[in-house]
Model the fold of this input.
Amino acid sequence: MSWRFKILNGKDTELYSYIKGDDFLEIDSSLLQLLKENEQDLYDLINYRWGLILETFNSTPRINKKVKIMDEREIKRSSLNKFKSYLDLENKEHKCFICNKKIEDHLSIDHVIPWSYMYSDDVWNLVYVCQTCNSSKNNRIPTRIEIIKLIKRNKNLLKCMEDNGINNKIYDELKISIEKDYVNKFWTGSKS
Done:
C-alpha cells in the first residue's frame, strides 16, 4: 500500500490500493463518481498546492497570488504611493523614466513591464513617469533600451537602500530580483 495521500486527519482513507512496484493503483468504482463530481475543485486544489511548493523555491513573484488574481472577476489594483519613499532614494529630482525630463506637474508611478502582464506591484518594476509619457505608454511592452535602463536603475536603487540602512521586505525583493534577473525574465515572457 502507498502511504502517500491516503492519510487524512490521521486516518487511512482507503481511497485506493497500491502495491509497491505496480504501475497502477485500484480505485473503488463508487469513488470514481465522487472524483468526477469534484473534478474542478480537485484540479484547483492540486494547482494551489503545486503553487505553494513552487513558492518555497521562489517567493517572488508570488505565484498563488497571481493565480488568484487571474481567477477574480474584478481585478483590484492597490495604490503605488507606498513605493514613493523608495523611488525617491534613487530619483530625488523626479525625472521621468521615459523622457528623462523633470516632472513638474503630476508625478505618476508606472510599471515598466505592464501590470497586466505581471499582476504584481514590485519596486523593481516601478518608476516615476510624467503624465504625458504614462498616458502614451498604455500597455506597451518596453524596449530593450528601457530594460537595460531599468536594470541599471535597480542596481542603483539597491545601493541607495543599503546606503540608507534600509533592510526590509522591499529591499529583499529588490535584491532577489537582481540576483535572479527578473527584469529580463519577465520582459522576455511578456513579449511571447
